[in-house]
Amino acid sequence: MTATDNQLINSAWFTDSRQVTGSPTDSADGVFFAIKGEHHDGHEFISDLYQKGIRQFVVERSALSPERRNELANYPDATFIEVDSSLRMLQNLAADYRQQFQIPVIGITGSNGKTIVKEWLAQLLDGGEGTDTFVVAKSPKSYNSQLGVPLSVHELNHEHTLGIFEAGISTTQEMPALEAIIRPTIGIFTNIGTAHDEGFRTRKQKIAEKLRLFTHADTLIYSVDYADIDEEVNLLLKAVNPVMRLVTWSLTGKNATYQATLQGKQLQLTGNEITPIYLVLPFQDSASVENLLHCIVTMLTLRSWGADAIQPRLNRLRPVSMRLEQKEGINNCVLIDDSYNNDVAGLQLALRFLNQQSTRSRRAVILSDVLQSGQPEADLYEQVSGLVQSNQVEQFIGIGPVLSRNAHFFGTNSLFYQTTDEFLANFPVSTLRDSTVLIKGARPFSFERIVHRLERKVHGTVLEINLDALTHNLNYYREKVGSETKLMVMVKAFAYGSGSAEVAQLLQFHRVDYLAVAYADEGVSLRQNGVHLPIMVMNPAPETFAALLEYNLEPEIYSIRLLRAWAEGLGKSGHSALSPMPHAPRPLHLKVDTGMHRLGFLESELPDVAAYLNQRPDLRVSTVFSHLVGADEAKFNSFSHQQYDTFLRSTAYLESALGYRPTRHLLNSAGIVRFPEYKLDMVRLGIGLYGVEASGIDPLALQQVGTLRSVISQIKTVKAGESIGYSRKGVLEHDARIATIAIGYADGYDRRLGNGVGQIWVNGTRCPTVGNVCMDMTMIDVTEASATEGDDVLIFGDTLPIAELAQRIDTIPYEILTGVSERVKRVFFKN
Ligand SMILES: *Cc1c(COP(=O)(O)O)cnc(C)c1O
User: Fold this and answer.
1) Where are the alpha helices (DSSP H) in 35-168?
2) One MF term from GO for this chain (predicted)?
3) Which residues pair with residue 667 across a beta bridge?
4) How confident is the model at residue 457 (pLDDT cuts 50, 70, 90)?
5) What is the pLDDT of residues 40-72, one digit of tens each?
6) What does the alpha-carbon distance between residue 238 and residue 248 come to, in Å, rounded to a whole number?
């Protein structure tokens, strides 16, 4: 190890420029690893990071073009370490860092349950008294990747007495790097799934690759009920690691260290080498039982604890929640409700999310005592206060005795309460307004009561938006088009019903190139919510030009009349004072009509357009685009080809007539999948982002984004022959239990879904509608379902696809999505 390496090892590590908030403490000894990945290139952010105070960079040789080398020469006081792979460098440093610790480290792999076993073990082992004390370091959430593992292991410090890290791999050759970084002394192999796995030839190969995590471990814990795992352990692992101790368990009477028998919640463990142990399990579903057995066997392996030590710890165990929800609050606030562990790593992740999704002018944090035993109290709260400050939090509220006695670390604009009750009784709620509020508490503080107090209450129908699924879908299309093609994302019509501001914030975080909306006011509202990406407005009426200029929105120009009006408007407004760069020409977007015959210039009009533009150097055609009329259906392929040809001719003409080359774009979501060869310089992603694969070619590629839920307001038993609802449409043929649901056509539940056409999912049973759909309510037949008043029901989601709903009433998914009215509350969540 060189002196430089040694210094790098102990610096703060950054791999994402967005983590660097610009606080002096962060930046002073920080090092940024510029990683060139599939979706973005860290080297693009070097100057940005330099401005934020970072002075050490690890950069990749292949990413250093002559221009970039010139750029780096502007920063003589920064150090650039050139390597072949920044990720590899980070991994090597993490492996060296790990060597400084002689504590037991648990490494977990397997197909399922890794994160739960890790979180539960941390709950079960952390804290305690005397020799039973553990101070646990662990990976946050499911940080188990090639990048997540080194960053997690780097969080180890000398107060920790135990590390718990998970490792996930998706192809061969990935595990050796993770093994060197985690270097587990104790291994847990949770299980192996039967699912087909792309990165591996066979199930056996998958097991063999995962077992590489344990090449140097002293002990391995697994269940012999997975015969394949048992076989590979004895065949392969034993050969490379013959002294390893195998600690096994079985629920099916197989030969193992621990024979487990379960009767209801009662667990009995017996075995040749142990005294029997009896425990009561807190959870009984089969997945939880398997995870619990791994945890219990691990505890027995680490310490010779008896049931008297283990049972109380089991009783305190809580389900693992990693969900973070964003919802509307009172006083024009937005609430971020984070139920994941309140430790420093969890807080860091939550503050990043607050930073990313902040749509209000102010930020506030309500935080309970932080669970962290690895650090002296004063150090811990100084660090917490630093995190809060560097994330520009204006208002801080601390709840709990420990936070209260460390109040001096926090600014004067902070308030402290000993308990949640004291907060609820005394906090002046009206002082919290126009803010994005992060609410994060350790479980004993019951912060759900605070969320309940601050949440804006509306009727029981909600549209849940899964932000992880949005990200997944975005990445799917990014991968399809590659890094050379830009991405414009359509957030018109309230982001296809999903909520414009929040979706746009996420897209901004993921650095898409452009957004597009239909009307000026949609663009204005995005700007007012802190979105600064370039925005194209597709239907800009002349009355809105002043707003376009004021908010730096870019018009789609589709006719000579509109072009003249825009040019004249610019002249009048003296726009140079308003424009961010006074002398820069104003960007506009030309729409060419290649066959849709909606908006746009016909090919024959282009000479006039070019002639006009050539007299107005203050206007610049930023992009030229057209739209396919039938990208989602193969039967229109030849027409699509024809449109492409017309479009290419048009753009070639414009390029030569204007003397520069505007960005060209043609494809929508279905087009990206069906005609990848037409991707040109940019594509326009719409419905695919929201989880509907409109081309039908790759139906399993996307994740469902929206789930529309409502509640049962009332249930009654009605006799055969009676009718249900308006106009006596729903006449019952049999005695029935009829439930009234709090959703109607005014919420977007289409009236055509009435009278049995639509179905609503109630606790696993699909229930038909009965009678006409009303404005605010719908009746369904729940005779076959197990249903009680107050139950949640599902209108669309995983078990009832939007596409099916659309088909039932002979429309398209677009109409279902955008039809969910704005009075339905949106809740955004991520894991
Ligand atoms: C809405 C829209 C799109 C996106 O279409 P999807 O089918 O939702 O992907 C693309 N281009 C234009 C001009 C649009 O209006």
Assistant:
1) 46-51, 66-72, 86-98, 114-125, 148-153
2) pyridoxal phosphate binding
3) none
4) confident
5) 789 999 999 999 899 999 999 999 999 999 999
6) 14
What whole-number percentage of the chain has pLDDT above 70? 96
575: how many CB neighbours lie within 10 A of its CB? 17
What fold, for 464-690? TIM Barrel (3.20.20)
DSSP for 297-337?
HHHHHHS---HHHHHHHHHT-------EEEEEBSTT-EEEE
Residue 598, annotated ligand binder? yes
**Tens digits of residue pLDDT in 349-379:** 899 899 888 888 899 999 999 876 667 889 8
**What is the rounded CA–CA span in Å between residue 45 and residue 37?**
13
CATH of domain 101-316: 3.40.1190.10
Q: Is 50 part of the annotated catalytic residue set?
A: no
775 known ligand binder: yes
- Which of 492, 591, 825, 830 is flagged as catalytic? 492
pTM here? Answer: 0.82
Nearest partner of 621 among 649, 663, 584, judged by Cα: 663
Q: Which atom of ligand 1 is nearest to the CA of 687?
A: 8
324-456 adopts what CATH topology?
A: Protein-Tyrosine Phosphatase; Chain A (3.90.190)
Among protein residues, the one with the nearest Cα to ligand 1's atom 13 is: 627
How confident is the model over 576-634, as pLDDT tens digits? 444 445 557 899 999 999 999 999 999 999 999 999 999 999 999 999 999 999 999 99
CATH 2.40.37.10 assigned to 706-830: yes
CB of 686 shorter than 6 A to ligand 1:
yes
User: What's the chain's Rg over C-alpha atoms?
Assistant: 30
Q: What is the signed CA dihedral for 226, 146, 344, 158, rounded to 10 degrees?
A: 90
Going from N- to C-terminal start, the domains of the chain cover 3-85, 101-316, 324-456, 464-690, 706-830
